[in-house]
Amino acid sequence: MGLYDRDYIRDDPPPGFSLGAQSMVVNLLIANVAFVLVDFLFFENHPLSDYLGLRSDLLRHPWNCWQLLTAGFVHSRRDLAHIVFNMVGLVMFGRGMEEVYGRKEFLRFYLAAVVVASLVWIAVTNLLSRGEAIMYGASGAVMAVTVLYALHFRGRIVLTFGIPIPALAMAGIYMVFGVWGLGNQKSEVAHAAHLGGAAFALLYYFSGVNLGRLAPTSLSPRGLRPRPKLRVHEPEGREENLASQVDRILEKISREGEASLSAKERRFLEDASRRYQQRRR
Question: What is the CATH number of domain 12-214?
Fold first, then answer.
């Protein structure tokens, strides 16, 4: 069995979560909370969401396209549960995805999910002639992160409405609620944005795309050319050597716990996980 066929590489990211500058999940959490605090302190009469939220008339005012991104970072200050539930979901499921994809690719995925969820909301709102409306919140991006997590760790048990169920079933329930909610015109929940985020996660996962590879290396004509895909072929002996080192580290975790790992051993496991992801693509 090769290194990349092993269950611990395929299904489980390294356990634990570090609240440090190296965590993109924490950076996003801080950014979202900061917007709420600024809203409370400096925008008492006119909520920040009125300026940064996504308005349904964007098609008539395309110069406000920046709202597609900023809407994902403002929340209702009348209902703190709005940001609390979003941030809990981001931390619960985002940390696993950051371990799998790395800081930069996770950030690219998250920001792209914000924009895609916003675009889907704009399209659905105008197609259904819902009239003038405004949308804001990280729910679309968090739904994308949640669905991506469920696709990676399908059988992992998570609490959903207080009931322990497999992660994939949880994501399915959320999407069913989203479809059902589209028909409720009185609902203040942006169900279309949730479904847009979920659809983006499905496309991202099954296409195996890496958003970093799609970005040009520069603005020159040469930099805008598609970069050729590089395939790295590991010699069989080298792969087996990597596998034996991974086994040794995992045995150490089993005996002494994760805290016993050195920084070098942690980096090695992260590198092995990234190698697996590249191998899949």
Answer: 1.20.1540.10
